[in-house]
Amino acid sequence: MSAEEGEEICEHYVRKCGLVSPCCNKVYPCRLCHDKKESHKLIRTDVKFIECLQCGCKQKVSPKCKNCLIIFGKYYCGICRLFDDREKGQFHCDGCGICRVGGRDNYFHCDKCDLCLRKSILDSHKCLEKSSRNNCAICLEDIHTSTIAAQVPKCGHLIHSTCFSDLLQSGGYTCPTCNVSLVDMSSSWRRLDSTIEQTPMPQEYANIDVRILCRDCHKHSIVKFHIIALKCGECGSYNTSRDDDGNVPINPAVAAVVVDQAQDVLDMNEEDNEDSSDGDNSVSEGTDENVMDNSDNASVRSDLSLD
Q1: Alpha helix segments (H runs only) across the chain
Q2: What pTM was computed for the model?
């Protein structure tokens, strides 16, 4: 197998050597290719020998071929057995115990989270003990050694960036671990304010007080009951839940009328928004300000991946 062939068959790296797997004695371009084909995983640090893809010489792990002297990769890490000819800002993190990408100068290692994070969130991120060692709460796959970048929500519960995007696209906006809002929901809360204001509860239900717990600020408050949503009296979030023992005996017919009225209000507001945006191309198609507005840095992508 030539170096050129090796580059073509590996979708993960450009390198000019293959790894001799100590577990099955087969030669693979990288550990990811190995794990994709085999029923077991290759432990990179156990690799002792490599095979030059240009001359076929088997040899101990080294940055260049002892026979034809070809350089196996512009980036080389003897600890991780990592070779790569693509420039990705690779660096080995002793704290993580693996190679990361993105440039050493752009990241710091948080000993408590046990993960490299962007320096821009050095003073703002919430530390959780060994948070990177937990699996993603959505796909249940490993985060610490994943080649997928991690999202760092303000609550500190890490999620794969792809899972994070899928969650938002499906209409979810809360952390699957602690239920805190993952993004700035202020525009959605304003819409709910308007909807509730325009769809008051019938008089017999208009002055019922209920006790709620806010999932965002974690405070209790007493608020007026409304069938559409309950607004936190402390921070204004609608990410709340009932926190009392009593039930409000709402007639189903009344509930249906209120819900229908609320839907009519939402539809009318949507039409007004469309009319007001005619001729205005300042907002890109496909954006959803109610879900994707992240202006308060509620969540930050780590942009980290690895071998």
Answers
A1: 3-9, 31-37, 161-169, 186-198, 252-276, 289-292
A2: 0.72
